[in-house]
Hints:
The protein is an alpha/beta fold and 199 residues long. Helices cover 29% and strands 21% of the residues.
Amino acid sequence: xxxxxxxxARLDAIAIGGSAGSIEALGAVLPALPAGFHAALLVVxxxxxxxxxxxxxxxxxxxxxxxxxxxxxxxxxxxxxxFAPPDYHLLVDSGPRLSxxxxxxxxxxxxxxDVLFESAADEYGPRLMxxxxxxxxxxxxxxxxxxxxxGGATVVQSPDSASSMAMPQAALAxxxxxxxxxxxxxxxxxxxxxxxxxx
Length: 199
């Protein structure tokens, strides 16, 4: 496994993806981030397509950072948590700006984690960290590889801490991430980076 304790550049964005079990993991990570956290957080979770997401309502009450559902063409603001809306891919365009797409599902999923990670890697390069959480399919593994190829940092939730191990295991079968950590230690990593002025 690559031993990279921290990113090589200041982080401008942290892309997070997950599926089954990831809301619990996010509950250990997002509320731990302090006001003044620099990097934007772009979050894709696999959600039912047929009903509105409650994620913003859940996390807005628990987080020191602003939490909102991503809107098409809006500029990415530092220190803001953006959740992909149900049934839309979330991408990052030049600017950076957010983009929503109704292109075909990938890995049976829309939003797709791979779509977010790959587009964010194109825009941010080494100023990106991608975090893959618990989930029940292989979405996100290919995107992590793209982030790594672009010089970004990669973190995978440790399979033994995930309620659904398939997603972390698929990533570990494809790449050697910088860190494999349980959610509490992912939160600790991000807060440490903030204290060091890297996020």
